[in-house]
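In response to the reviewer comment on reproducibility (Comment 2.3), we provide here a single inverse folding case reported in full, input and output, so that an independent group could reproduce the run without further information from us. The structure tokens appear first.
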């Protein structure tokens, strides 16, 4: 399993092929990858496809990447917590997160709570879950 990466040597944690296989099996294995590979877009995309919460362990640059964030929140809405402020203020991203997990609304930025249309949509989505 990808979780085995935590016991792997430093060299294996920096081996792109090994890390790619690990995150495909267990997205949160990204946590144990080298810093360089936690910033590798292709690896991060695989990790968040498997487990959206892997967004927590990636670079700020990739937490600010629309495609990466959207894939993460669609897989696990709670990944919104680890998205950049820009995306925690983004209606489309936040609604996708809420659709996947109602509690994701807790991570939307404050200005969205004053947006009546956004809140109406979010409440309706939460009620359908």
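Designed residues, in position order:
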């Amino acid at each position: 399993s990808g979780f085995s990466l935590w016991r792997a040597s430093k060299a294996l944690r920096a081996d792109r092929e090994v890390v790619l296989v690990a995150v495909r099996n267990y997205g949160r294995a990204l946590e144990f990858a080298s810093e360089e590979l936690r910033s590798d877009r292709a690896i991060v995309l695989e990790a968040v496809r498997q487990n959206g919460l892997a967004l927590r362990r990636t670079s700020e640059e990739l937490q600010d990447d629309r495609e990466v964030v959207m894939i993460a929140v669609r897989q696990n809405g709670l990944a919104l917590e680890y998205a950049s402020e820009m995306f925690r203020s983004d209606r489309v991203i936040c609604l996708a997160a809420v659709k996947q997990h109602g509690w994701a609304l807790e991570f939307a930025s404050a200005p969205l709570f004053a947006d009546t249309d956004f809140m109406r949509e979010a409440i309706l989505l939460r009620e359908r879950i």
